[in-house]
Structures are given as C-alpha cells and as structure tokens.
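User: quick one - fold this with zinc ion bound?
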Amino acid sequence: MNQSIFTAIDQKAPELTALRRDFHRYPETRWTEFRTSARIAEILTRLGYEVLMGQQVCKPECRMAAPEADVLEAARNRAMAQGADPVFLESMKGGFTGVIGILRRGEGPTVALRFDIDALPLTEATGHRSDREGYRSRNEGCMHGCGHDGHIAIGLGTAWALMQVREQLHGTVKLIFQPAEEGAQGARAVVDSGHLDGVEYVLGAHMMGGPETATGQIRIQSGKTLATSKFDAVFHGTPSHAGQAPEQGNNALLAAAAAIQGLYAIPRHGTAGTQINVGTIRGGSGRNVVCSEVRLEAEVRGETDAANTYMKQYAFRILRSAAEMHGCTVDITLAGEAVSVENTPALSEQLARVWESMGLPVQRRFDELWTASEDFACMAQRVQQQGGQSCYFRVLSACTAGLHQAGFDFDESALPTGVKAFVSAALELMK
Ligand SMILES: [Zn+2]
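Assistant: Sure. Structure tokens for the protein plus zinc ion:
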C-alpha cells in the first residue's frame, strides 16, 4: 500500500474539520436526521456513489420507536429552513433517515463501513469551544455529544478517499450512514432491511478519549459491548375520586411504583453481569384523582445476550404482574435493542498489522470489554452468522469531557486518522 493516499488525506484535514463543524451546528436526534442525511446524500452523489435513501435504507416494518408525526414534521421543516435539499427531504418523509452509498468495483468481497449520524437530546454547555469558534448547536436542546458528527466527517472523508483509489479496489463497498444509534434502533432496522446480507466484512468505529489521551492512535478492544433492550411501558387504570370512591379506581401509579421496586429487585445472573434502569416516569392528572395512566421508559443490559434476555423476560413479567396486582393493564413496547458480539480476532490482528505498517499506532486491548452498548453489534452479528468478519475499533482523540456530556468535544486532528484507518482497511480487504 503506498503512502500517497495518506498524504492526500492529511491535506484534506481542514475540510474534514469544516464538515464536522457543519454537522455539529445542526444536530438531529433519532429518525429526524433530515438535514444530516440530505447533506450526506448530496456529497455521496457528487462523488459518484450509488445512493440509497428513505425506505430503501430502513423498511417501515423494520423500524422501532419512530417519533410522532408532529415531531417529524417540525424536524423536517427545520431541516428545510437549514438548507436541506427538498428532493432528498421528500424521499425521507415519515422519518426514513439514513443513507447508504455503494461503490461497485467488480468481483471481490462486499465490505460495509458503518458511520452513525444521530445526536443527543442535550443542551451544549456554555463556554464550549463551539461558542468561541462559531459552530455551536443551532438546534435548541440537541447536541452532538457523542462524536457522531466526527463519525460522519470520517465517513465522508473515507467516501472521497476511496474514490481516489478505486482502481485498487476489487469488490463492493457499502458506506452505511446509520440513523438512530442512541437508543439502539437504527442498526437493527438496517440489518432487518437486508443490507448486511452477503457482506463479508463490516467495520465500525467510535471517537474516544479523555483530556490526557494522545490523539491519532487506534485502539482495538474485544469489540464486546453490553447487550441491551429498551422498552416503554404504559399502565392503564381507572380514574376515580380519591376521597369519595378510591375503591372504584384502579391506580396506575401504584402499579408503576410496584413495578419499579420489582424491576430493581430482579436477582443477578450467575454467568454474566446485568444492569437495569428506569429512566423516566410520567403520570397522574391531579392530587385528588386516582391516577389512570403512567408511562415508564426503562432498559436492561447484559454482558451476554442470554443474560440480557433473562433480564428482559423477568422485567416484562414484573410489569405485567404489577399491573395485575392493582387491577390495571400494561402495554409494553420494545423501543430499541442491541446484541453483544465480539470482534473476529483474525480480522482485528490483520487490521492492526496493516495500520501499523502504514504508520498508524495501534493499542491492542483485545480482551477489553466496553461497558456500554453499541448497536453496531447487530450488524456484526449478522455478518458473523454468514461466516463473515467484523471489527469495531476506537479512534483516540483528546476529549474535553465524557461521551453524552454537555461539555463534550474532541480534538479534530483525529479525523484524518479515522479516514486513514477505514481507507487502508478497505484497500487491504479488497486488494
Ligand atoms: Zn456514540
């Protein structure tokens, strides 16, 4: 592999930073990544990629937890006002965001590179570097606080670089710009829509680091993350006068309270660590009314799929039993799910060697688990089930705060490193 493409990528650094900052200014949460997707589609089209959008990316029956119609409409209008191409917007009607760019180069393996594109419902901290340098989030209560703006810039830089070296590629590259990673909905939808079928290699990456981290290295861990299931429960009871006739009511609040106590009391699993969290509870209409409706948002996690399934089934049983105990009913909806999958060790080793040979420093932590969830695992699982290989790695960067924090920002000089990692991996796997 020759170094000239790396030199060209280095020269693109200012453009990568500008791209990242553009996406940072206009963050969008799950299934509302309208402007984001339109921008990506515009760039991929210009570069000469075959572009899939809208329901070609996620089939309607494969999608979980789509926002309400009014939320989608408001987000689409905002995207329009913020310069999104109306033609692209039209194809995403109903919140079918996300983009896939395909480059076909004849015989050879299909390699999928995944970049997540969504932001978080978070208000950017005041005094953030974005204030001083003009890229603060223009979308109130929404922020790229997990570095996915960087992932998009890396993905688009990779798209550009792969076009420069296309003569050296044999096979098909799929660049998957995946919506709705936060909450673990997007990857499952893309997988169930068939886009990982026939893929031999799938790669994904995340920005990571603390204030002391040296920017510009790659870290490969086990790839193993926590399996997780997100779910919403709505308890339905019967309202009544709290003083005159409480016996005529069925108190949904009581059912929900019993459920929460029960959920946190699920016994641990003997073979793997488990977690549970009830994150929100909303309900009730007045002090003197027996409450007839309560909504909970909760999640379970497990170090293995089996442990996560155990937690999910136990949790659902508790929700149903707690409802019954107080004469209520409960509707449970799955709002997101990710499995736990390890990197293919042979691929991790192969990529580590390639990167090192190209002068990219690699930290090998092949045994290390990441105690978070990442829905890339759904893609990795699908590819491995077909006999393919997967690798999830970290692009290390000095970060000002932890992921999902209002003060989060990263050192943009990591962007070319990310592009180099993906491009050299594709060149290696498709030579
Ligand atoms: Zn993230």
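One thing worth noting: Residues 4-220+343-429 form a domain with the Aminopeptidase fold (CATH 3.40.630.10).
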